[in-house]
């Protein structure tokens, strides 16, 4: 039996007998477990307790939070000091109001258990935090404020609500008004502030890049890769083995291109369009990262922990080391690259996908195009650019026509377009913001959006039909 199956069986039984909390032995006996499942039972029961799915009472019995008048969720504290518990499982009652006097040491973002009290002001549900399951932050960024033999760190995050007390022995060289990282050593309660020690000095007000660095540290974003992960990335070959090409669709001679932002470094998708009679052939090629990042490897585990690349105004914190993200897994111009292909034949009138092929492939990016240049070619009819990219101008025009076909199909289905304005911050050489400009969303961006949606829908439909889950 798997971990998930064991949790489902435990929860299923508890839900069927939710009237009163149950002893663990009673649950165990009812499930009729033996062998290895006995050990798994105790492990998963503890996991359900730790994450608040089940509540363990003082009498060593287990029950569902809702049946015990409890709410489990993440607490969001306002700058005025009170907070709301946002339930892990949505209910009709919604969020639970927590007065400042009932936080019981909880800090913004913590996962907590709160008891629902009698309704308070304006018939609003109120609660009191009775247990903290998981702390959201062990470190905070703030301003060091020295006061004789002790100091306080005033957090940048105003939702934290309280300053962090620091003893002299824990100053670690910090000076008044410096921006620092403080590690919490003693959590707060109703009577006292949290205590901490200075673990990093970020700089003084006005230092170049201090604001961005503060954001990185405050959100605990990793700026470096562990040694084992970096070593694994450096071992990845930057050339493709010839034997790998034999089993893949070879599209290296096709005029496949990438279209990205001007300052993009990691190019992970490429496109190709060809008019075939009244229909369009659309090829979408995604960098085959899975070839280089094996399941459960150091690279895979690190990517899982990071979840995504993080884009800041002056830098990118990549999900994978640059040897992969900007190297062999980036579809750089003029370089052979391994990809996964989704090639579709699309009806030129209805936008319906007539047929498709999903397969490993190899491509060679013929042009690294950017959004402004594509827009200038298609909309402004820029003569210099049209001459420079004469070999792909007809394809770009076909792409623009196909985008309209695909967009009309989505509109007929009732799709919603979220035309939200997007801003870009411009920095000077000292990384100080000098202007905020609106990002232009033109036909170039819309082409890529429609092509990626078409590929995603095709792949999702294929996976659903063959009952192959995304894992």
Structural write-up:
Helices cover 28% and strands 30% of the residues. It is of the alpha+beta class. Helix 1 packs across helix 2 (24-31). The protein is globular, with a radius of gyration of 28 Å. The chain starts with a helix and ends in a 6-residue tail after the last helix.
Average pLDDT level? 91
Helix content: 25-40%
**Sheet with the most strands: spatial strand order:** 6-5-4-7-8
Radius of gyration: 28 Å
Summarize the structure.
This protein has twelve helices and 24 strands. It has 471 residues and is an alpha+beta fold.
Secondary-structure map:
Layout: H1 3-16, E1 22-23, H2 24-31, H3 36-50, E2 55-56, E3 61-63, E4 70-77, E5 83-87, E6 96-98, E7 111-116, E8 127-134, E9 139-147, E10 150-155, E11 164-167, E12 179-186, E13 195-203, H4 210-218, H5 227-235, H6 242-245, E14 249-251, E15 257-260, E16 269-276, E17 279-287, H7 298-306, E18 310-311, E19 316-317, H8 322-328, E20 336-346, E21 353-364, E22 367-370, H9 371-378, H10 383-388, H11 393-412, E23 423-427, E24 433-438, H12 443-465
Parallel strand pairs: 11-13, 14-21, 15-22
Antiparallel strand pairs: 1-3, 2-3, 4-5, 4-7, 5-6, 7-8, 9-10, 9-12, 10-11, 12-13, 16-17, 17-20, 18-19, 20-21, 23-24
Helix pairs in contact: 1-2, 1-3, 11-12
């Amino acid at each position: 039996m798997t971990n998930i199956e064991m949790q489902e069986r435990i929860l299923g039984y508890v839900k069927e007998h939710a009237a009163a909390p149950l002893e663990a032995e009673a649950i165990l006996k009812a499930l009729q477990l033996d062998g290895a499942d006995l050990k798994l039972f105790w492990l998963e029961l503890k996991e359900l307790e730790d994450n608040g799915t089940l509540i363990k009472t003082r009498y060593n019995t287990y029950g569902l939070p809702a049946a015990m008048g409890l709410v489990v969720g993440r607490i969001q504290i306002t700058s005025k000091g009170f907070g709301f518990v946002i339930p892990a499982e949505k209910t009709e009652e919604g969020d639970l109001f927590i007065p400042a006097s009932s936080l019981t040491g909880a800090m913004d973002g913590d996962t907590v258990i709160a008891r629902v009290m009698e309704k308070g002001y304006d018939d609003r549900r109120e609660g009191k935090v009775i247990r903290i399951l998981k702390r959201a932050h062990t470190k905070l960024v703030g301003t060091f404020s020295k006061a004789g033999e002790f100091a306080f760190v005033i957090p940048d995050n105003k939702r934290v609500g309280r300053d962090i007390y620091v003893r002299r022995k824990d100053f670690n060289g910090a000076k008044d008004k410096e921006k620092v990282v403080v590690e919490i050593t003693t959590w707060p309660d109703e009577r006292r502030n949290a205590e901490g020690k200075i673990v990093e000095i970020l700089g003084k007000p006005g230092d170049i890049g201090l604001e961005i660095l503060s954001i990185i540290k405050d959100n605990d974003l990793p700026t470096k890769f562990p040694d084992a992960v970096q070593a694994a990335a450096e071992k990845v070959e930057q050339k493709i083995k010839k034997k790998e090409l034999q089993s893949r669709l070879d599209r290296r001679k096709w005029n496949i291109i990438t279209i990205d932002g001007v300052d993009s470094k990691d190019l992970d998708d490429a496109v190709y369009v060809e008019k075939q009679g009244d229909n369009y052939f659309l090829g979408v090629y995604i960098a085959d990262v899975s070839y280089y990042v094996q399941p459960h490897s150091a690279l895979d585990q690190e990517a899982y922990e990071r979840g995504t690349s993080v884009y800041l105004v002056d830098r990118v914190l990549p999900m994978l080391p640059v040897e992969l993200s900007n190297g062999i897994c980036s579809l750089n111009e003029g370089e052979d690259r391994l990809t996964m292909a989704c090639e579709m034949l699309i009806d030129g009138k209805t936008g319906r996908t007539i047929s498709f092929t999903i397969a490993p492939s190899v491509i060679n990016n013929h042009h690294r195009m950017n959004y402004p240049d594509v827009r200038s070619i298609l909309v402004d009819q820029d003569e210099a650019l049209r001459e420079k990219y004469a070999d792909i101008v007809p394809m770009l025009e076909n792409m623009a026509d196909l985008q309209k076909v695909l967009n009309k199909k989505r509109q007929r289905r009732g799709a919603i377009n979220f035309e939200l304005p997007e801003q870009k911050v411009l920095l000077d050489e000292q990384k100080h913001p000098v202007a905020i400009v609106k990002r232009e969303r033109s036909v170039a961006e819309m082409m890529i959006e429609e092509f990626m949606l078409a590929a995603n829908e095709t792949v999702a439909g294929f996976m659903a039909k063959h009952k192959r889950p995304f894992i």
